[in-house]
Amino acid sequence: MFDSGFRPDRSHAKSARSVAETMGNYHPHGDVSIYDTLVRMAQPWSLRYPLVDGQGNFGSPGNDPPAAMRYTEARLTPLAMEMLREIDEETVDFIPNYDGRVQEPTVLPSRFPNLLANGSGGIAVGMATNIPPHNLRELADAVFWALENHDA
Question: Where is this region: Disordered (predicted)?
């Protein structure tokens, strides 16, 4: 979405377009997982700090499903832009994508700890993980405290 210009200061774009470009450039394994992820990043009940600004029916906390991707529109939130702000400044390594046409970062040069801020959960290799979301100001305070207290 960043490369396509779907930014907060521009109008929303069809979600199907974001999904197609993601599938074509970075993830050739089907559109369902991509759209489900885009939807989740737009739901304020799924993420403490949404990274996608969705327009249209993105579901409900009561498990109502979102509309099909052809009916919804999306763009990045200002916080997502902050997360990607230094992506073009060679702060991380880039590698060729699956077919060598596009370069993709090995990691995101995030300016805030998204994993801790928004939390995550999942199961892999028989182990469950659940990281609860945290307040961004409290995370910043914890980082500064850790920097000042080397023995912590």
Answer: 1-23
